[in-house]
Amino acid sequence: MRVLVLGGTGLTGPYVVRRLCGLGHHVTVFHRGGHEADLPAGVTHIHGSLLDPPPELQRLAADVVVDMWAMNQAHAAAFLECFRRSAARAVVISSGDVYRAYGRLQRLESGPPDAVPLIEDSPLRESRYPYRPRPPAPLDDKDEYDKILVEETLRAQQDLPVTILRYPAVYGPHDMHRFGPWVRQMTSGAAEIRMQEGFAAWRWTHGFAPDGAEAVVLAVTNNRAAGRTYNVGEVAAPTWAERVESLGRVIGWRVRVVPLPAAELPEDQRMPYDFAHHLVVDSALIRSQLGYGEVVPYEDGLRRTVEWERS
């Protein structure tokens, strides 16, 4: 199979590319060339921007094209313009932040908590551009970012069958230092970690990067996935207090999380979110239909991430 991966050099992409190559598929990676990942020798690289695609990309005929970095409506439209007539299928990465629970967590919307776990048909956000009101986020074009608009653009056409994978909070070596603050406190010798009480009890579905990559590979290699939307993530999401305590165990630190009211924490540690809204998703559909399952045990994934943080 000929597979084109847009991105492929970030957190999850290299695992996708290596796995597809290992299965015998021919993989081409299209990215901006800002950095190169450690990919198999047989992978073809094309550099450029999707908004001004180079001729060799436009001439490329792929059985499946994977978009790891569709962030806004303009990107989704450019993606369709480039591949709707040249590719047989597509797999596009979305996010759990499309759900209404995320908008209410961010206080962009109001209302009672939605039932969790969130399934693929759970209500989506009514608000748009969730990162505009926030401080600088580690995203390109954060003011235009909205995965809901990406999904709507892809679903509004019938030329290219698309599988949408809603990713969880992905962690692993080279992530956005999701666990960095906690690891630093532990390695400094802290016996207890003070944490805002709402956050300590809050649950957010996570996934280790190689596990997220496995979902992509299954969607690429299974025609049954065409036209479907799947949640991706761990079976059960612990509270943040439980997750941080697990981090401590894997590096041999017995830490105790002490939940405190926000007013008792330094101002720069107070979080303004409404933690009554949990971001727990149900990944039963991709598990039952595509045979998805974690490829790395939970504590091994935590250990590998912590080792990278400490290095």
Fold and architecture overview:
The protein is built from eleven helices and eleven strands. The protein is of the alpha/beta class.
Helix and strand arrangement:
Layout: E1 2-6, H1 13-22, E2 26-31, E3 44-47, H2 55-59, E4 62-67, H3 73-83, E5 87-95, H4 100-105, H5 147-155, E6 162-167, E7 169-171, H6 180-187, E8 192-196, H7 197-200, E9 206-208, H8 209-221, E10 229-231, H9 240-250, E11 256-260, H10 284-290, H11 298-310
Parallel strand pairs: 1-2, 1-4, 2-3, 4-5, 5-6, 6-10, 7-9, 8-11
Name a few traits of the molecule:
11 helices, alpha/beta, Rossmann fold, two-stranded parallel sheet, globular, single chain, 311 residues, 7-stranded parallel beta sheet
